[in-house]
């Protein structure tokens, strides 16, 4: 009880998950009932691995639900086997009766079987053929009863216990809804960026060019009247303001969607590394392009982390690594962005609104940005360095797209 019991108890959910997978395969292959598997168990942390595994097993609701299905299916399975085997055995005997009825020995001069009531003997060819036709009845009854039991008990029980729970299904729906919302917001920002670039910015440039021509014409006019000088000053002021507005528009447009991302995240990261204030390298393993929103978050995270390393870490070199890990079994993928510098370390996020203490609100802002897609910001920055910050951005595999041809 003390030594073996806990081990067996911990092993129940693991074994039940395997049994559930077998039942789902049988239901899919034999009955055409497709049940989505429950979500995978979270991976245990490196520290306390054994205790974490034991706790995860004991608190695994999907494993215990699979165990409940296995126990609940036992009496139903026995009933199905008895019904199927017994009734069909009688039907098979009746169907084959014309073949072997003459082989049955008889004590009273008759061969074949008797019904056991009314003295009816099945000892002639007509009665043998009628018995054969009657054999179809138990075969049909067993088939109908088996399907009735499957539809009444097995299918609903399997849907309730072998598939994702209601909470998991709701979470899956919310995840899909959130992913669509993020994609829609990214598309809306791209439309705003194009409207600003092609609309407001173009018109402001046209206004600036008109003011420049007006200034040139005013400069050609002879005389030094006060009104003429005042007009020239007003035109110069308007031209300067228009140039300022154009610059702000360009910064706003680049903040909405960096132009470097038009060619992909790999090109954008290489451009960031080339323009950094300290020596920086970018290594990418991106055979396919992630969703636009994921690319944008990764780019802004890389830009912020590179700027922090340049301004605050005292580093002499920075390395940026980006790769995509695909989990084909669960139709998911993760974009992992790692920024490592050889600075003095000590980086940690500070809550927004605080003014005392170390760290910076930039990391807190990145954590908030990453959390919008259920991502993680992992910081390893001991005093004395080095600093390694990892950004993990999950997304669906179906959202991967090929790179555009140059």
TrEMBL record:
The answer to whether UniProt assigns keyword Iron to this entry is no
Q: Which residues form the Histidine kinase domain?
A: 304-397
List the catalytic activities from the record. Answer: ATP + protein L-histidine = ADP + protein N-phospho-L-histidine
Where does the chain cross the membrane?
A: 71-93
Query: Tell me, what's a Pfam family for it?
Result: HATPase_c
Question: Does the keyword Cell membrane feature in the UniProt annotation?
Answer: no
From which source organism is this entry?
Streptomyces kanamyceticus
| EC class | transferase
Which GO-annotated molecular functions does the record name? ATP binding; phosphorelay sensor kinase activity; protein dimerization activity
Q: Which N-terminal stretch is annotated as signal sequence?
A: none
Could you list this entry's UniProt keywords, alphabetically sorted. ATP-binding, Kinase, Membrane, Nucleotide-binding, Phosphoprotein, Transferase, Transmembrane, Transmembrane helix, Two-component regulatory system
Q: What is its EC number?
A: 2.7.13.3
The terms describing its cellular component in GO are: membrane
User: Which segments carry the region annotation Disordered?
Assistant: 342-364
Name assigned to this protein: histidine kinase
């Amino acid at each position: 009880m003390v030594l073996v019991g806990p081990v067996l108890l911990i092993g129940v959910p693991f074994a039940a998950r395997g049994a559930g997978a077998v039942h789902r395969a049988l239901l899919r292959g034999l009955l055409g009932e497709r049940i989505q598997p429950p979500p995978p168990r979270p991976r245990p942390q490196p520290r306390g691995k054994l205790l974490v595994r034991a706790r995860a097993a004991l608190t695994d609701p999907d494993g215990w639900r699979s165990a409940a299905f296995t126990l609940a299916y036992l009496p139903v399975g026995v009933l199905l086997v008895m019904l199927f085997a017994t009734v069909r055995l009688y039907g098979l005997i009746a169907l084959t009766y014309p073949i072997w009825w003459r082989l049955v020995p008889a004590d009273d001069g008759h061969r074949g079987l008797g019904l056991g009531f009314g003295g009816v003997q099945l000892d002639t060819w007509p009665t043998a053929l009628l018995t054969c036709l009657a054999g179809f009845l138990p075969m049909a009854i067993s088939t109908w009863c088996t399907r009735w039991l499957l539809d009444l008990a097995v299918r609903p029980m399997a849907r309730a216990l072998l598939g994702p729970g209601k909470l998991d299904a709701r979470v899956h729906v919310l995840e899909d809804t959130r992913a669509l919302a993020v994609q829609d917001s990214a598309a809306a920002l791209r439309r705003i960026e194009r409207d600003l670039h092609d609309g407001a910015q173009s018109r402001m440039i046209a206004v600036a060019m008109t003011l420049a021509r007006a200034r040139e014409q005013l400069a050609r006019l002879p005389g030094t009247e006060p009104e003429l000088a005042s007009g020239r000053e007003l035109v110069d002021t308007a031209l300067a303001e228009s140039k300022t507005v154009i610059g702000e528009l360009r910064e706003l447009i680049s903040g909405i969607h960096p132009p470097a991302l038009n060619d992909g995240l790999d090109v954008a990261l290489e451009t960031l590394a080339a323009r950094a204030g300290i020596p920086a390298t970018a290594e990418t393993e991106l055979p396919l392009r992630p969703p636009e929103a994921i690319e944008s978050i990764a780019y802004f995270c890389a830009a912020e982390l590179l700027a922090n390393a340049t301004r605050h870490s005292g580093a002499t070199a920075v390395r940026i690594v980006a790769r995509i890990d695909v989990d084909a079994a669960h139709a998911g993928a993760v974009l992992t962005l790692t920024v490592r510098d050889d600075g003095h370390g000590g980086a940690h996020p500070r809550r927004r609104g605080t003014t005392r203490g170390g760290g910076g609100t930039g990391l807190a802002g990145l954590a908030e940005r990453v959390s919008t897609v259920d991502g993680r910001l992992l910081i390893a920055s001991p005093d004395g360095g080095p600093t390694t910050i990892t950004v993990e951005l999950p997304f669906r595999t179906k959202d991967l797209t090929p790179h555009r041809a140059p």
